């Protein structure tokens, strides 16, 4: 590579690193910004959350709405109905057990029969066990960011499936979807009976009403909407786009830290669960969309499903700000495997083998000596789907844009592209010889 080109690349690289990514990544959501419109400003202003991962919470929007000392009294306070939602089989070992009791104005069952949603969703896929209805390819794939639609499109209509494995019928596997939307869900809630949704907005905030309360989720944060919970997503910033992983096999948990010790990566304290909140509204023709076996069904009811006045338990939606992640890495030589950046994992029955890992490559110092810093060339037994929230990824200099994606299926060889290889191959040389003076102009 000639020197001018190197100089140009170095300047560009340093500049990329300094600007947008740093500003974005150094913000945090501790003090939530709720500016910008949508009309329901006050509805999502100053939201409160409960802290901790997998805690057993108690929360009431009206004082005294939780029954004392039992789950299901004959008469609940305020005449509420007690309803359990279980996230695991009742009989799993206690440490895995997840359930909550919701105290609501009307029970969820008060709705008209389910019927297939019209029109049927054309872009969703869930069963990957039959390769005749999907494409199988070992080719390394990359997607450009999806355009925000021009016609009115809410979160549900904006969903489209990228890839997956297994099937919700087997209760095993996952799907990766994306969404590109420009409108809020109106008088409509979605419940996913196939698995948990983990949503990673890349553009535009999400204002999410759930049966457990309200969450604001901004780009940089992720939200988990567990199996079965009803939710409705409004888009206060208009256009929104993002990534979703749907898991059929269980729930996300924090990874073990092994020799890292007791601290680091994602801290339990940084996971935020909504406090109880309800709307006591009669809304004729409210639609519940129920995703089951990959198909959408709908039923009508005449009230908001967000009528839970109090709840208690350890099964609830939560969010996490990826900017709180405390990355670990090599400090002398060689490149750590990407699992060092695991935020959350859904384990399979085989020890150490995940169904899905959520991994983040945040801005961080790469300090190793005589080491090639970006991902090494490799072939992995796990398949890797990547998205980009902002900035650039050190493994892909060109053509990998925020909102885009890449898929490297199991055992498909991959690694950095040639310009990236050449850039990093000369980086140490440059660092060791500052007299070459590659500072940005
Ligand atoms: O392919 C990728 O960019 C992901 C990845 C990152 C890394 O640092 C090591 C291995 C790996 O698969
Ligand atoms: Fe990889």
TrEMBL record:
<dbReference type="GO" id="GO:0005737">
    <property type="term" value="C:cytoplasm"/>
</dbReference>
<feature type="binding site">
    <location>
        <position position="414"/>
    </location>
    <ligand>
        <name>Fe cation</name>
    </ligand>
</feature>
<dbReference type="GO" id="GO:0046872">
    <property type="term" value="F:metal ion binding"/>
</dbReference>
<dbReference type="InterPro" id="IPR046451">
    <property type="entry name" value="HgmA_C"/>
</dbReference>
<keyword id="KW-0223">Dioxygenase</keyword>
<dbReference type="InterPro" id="IPR005708">
    <property type="entry name" value="Homogentis_dOase"/>
</dbReference>
<feature type="binding site">
    <location>
        <position position="384"/>
    </location>
    <ligand>
        <name>Fe cation</name>
    </ligand>
</feature>
<dbReference type="Pfam" id="PF20510">
    <property type="entry name" value="HgmA_N"/>
</dbReference>
<comment type="similarity">
    <text>Belongs to the homogentisate dioxygenase family.</text>
</comment>
<feature type="binding site">
    <location>
        <position position="393"/>
    </location>
    <ligand>
        <name>homogentisate</name>
    </ligand>
</feature>
<feature type="binding site">
    <location>
        <position position="378"/>
    </location>
    <ligand>
        <name>Fe cation</name>
    </ligand>
</feature>
<keyword id="KW-0408">Iron</keyword>
<keyword id="KW-0585">Phenylalanine catabolism</keyword>
<dbReference type="InterPro" id="IPR014710">
    <property type="entry name" value="RmlC-like_jellyroll"/>
</dbReference>
<dbReference type="Pfam" id="PF04209">
    <property type="entry name" value="HgmA_C"/>
</dbReference>
<keyword id="KW-0828">Tyrosine catabolism</keyword>
<keyword id="KW-0560">Oxidoreductase</keyword>
<dbReference type="InterPro" id="IPR011051">
    <property type="entry name" value="RmlC_Cupin_sf"/>
</dbReference>
<feature type="domain" description="Homogentisate 1,2-dioxygenase C-terminal">
    <location>
        <begin position="323"/>
        <end position="423"/>
    </location>
</feature>
<feature type="binding site">
    <location>
        <position position="414"/>
    </location>
    <ligand>
        <name>homogentisate</name>
    </ligand>
</feature>
<comment type="pathway">
    <text>Amino-acid degradation; L-phenylalanine degradation; acetoacetate and fumarate from L-phenylalanine: step 4/6.</text>
</comment>
<feature type="domain" description="Homogentisate 1,2-dioxygenase N-terminal">
    <location>
        <begin position="48"/>
        <end position="322"/>
    </location>
</feature>
<keyword id="KW-0479">Metal-binding</keyword>
<dbReference type="GO" id="GO:0004411">
    <property type="term" value="F:homogentisate 1,2-dioxygenase activity"/>
</dbReference>
<dbReference type="GO" id="GO:0006572">
    <property type="term" value="P:L-tyrosine catabolic process"/>
</dbReference>
<feature type="active site" description="Proton acceptor">
    <location>
        <position position="335"/>
    </location>
</feature>
<dbReference type="InterPro" id="IPR046452">
    <property type="entry name" value="HgmA_N"/>
</dbReference>
<dbReference type="GO" id="GO:0006559">
    <property type="term" value="P:L-phenylalanine catabolic process"/>
</dbReference>
<protein>
    <recommendedName>
        <fullName>homogentisate 1,2-dioxygenase</fullName>
        <ecNumber>1.13.11.5</ecNumber>
    </recommendedName>
</protein>
